[in-house]
Amino acid sequence: DQQVKQNSPSLSVQEGRISILNCDYTNSMFDYFLWYKKYPAEGPTFLISISSIKDKNEDGRFTVFLNKSAKHLSLHIVPSQPGDSAVYFCAASPYGNKLVFGAGTILRVKS
Amino acid sequence: GAGVSQTPSNKVTEKGKYVELRCDPISGHTALYWYRQSLGQGPEFLIYFQGTGAADDSGLPNDRFFAVRPEGSVSTLKIQRTERGDSAVYLCASSPGRFQRVPETQYFGPGTRLLVL
């Protein structure tokens, strides 16, 4: 049973445009959500997080939106850069310890 | 460097053999996590340590898998009687661990790629 789903295996965006990566979850006990970025042969790198008491968190070019009623979150990258090309994982935590990850979305930013 | 380190980076073994994977967390981090990432999937939780004790081992798939952290720093993941299905990237992460059950950002190492032939 996949509790965190990233339904788009891949996304291709032109440099300078907006990238929107989506994530859905099923467990109402999740109270903390994170996005990680992963390059080949490296471990996941933390990008941005959001607590369930917020609906938006922004850090530079990255913004995460949380819609609790829809059990949906999204990551917006504006403007997209070629160096953003990586696998993006959505993760959720039920009580602050273990993370439950989605399967990832491969983002390709074309120059 | 100051990040999480894992050794070896790659490990090839034969079915039935025993393997040990090592994780050095960020200095001062009391919380340590092991995850397993199979091809085409996201990391899957295995076990979480707070200090020397395993606070949550609910993700260990069976009793062939065991992890220790005797001094509250370095951790070793041990796999007995390896099977081909154990082939995956094993990731270790650490976090400050200041509070129990309070969300913290987890910082990941590069992983150990295990191949069981």
Give a short overview.
The complex is a heterodimer of chains A (111) and B (117). Chain A has 111 residues and is mostly beta strands.
* Number of helical segments with 4 or more residues of chain B: 0
Mean pLDDT of chain A: 94
Distance between the termini of chain B: 33 Å
- Please tell me how large the radius of gyration of chain B is: 13 Å
Task: Tell me the series of helices and strands of chain B, N- to C-terminal.
Answer: EEEEEEEEEEE
What Rg of chain A, in angstroms, do the CA atoms define? 13 Å
Return the structural class of chain B: mainly beta
Low-confidence stretches of chain B: none
Please state the structural category of chain A.
mainly beta
Uncertain ranges of chain A: none
Q: Tell me the overall shape of chain A.
A: globular
- How much of the residues of chain A is beta strand, in percent? over 45%
- Sheet with the most strands, sense and barrel status of chain A: 6 strands, mixed
Work out the number of β strands of chain A.
11
Note the overall shape of chain B. Answer: globular
Element order of chain A: H for helix, E for strand: EEEEEEEEEEE
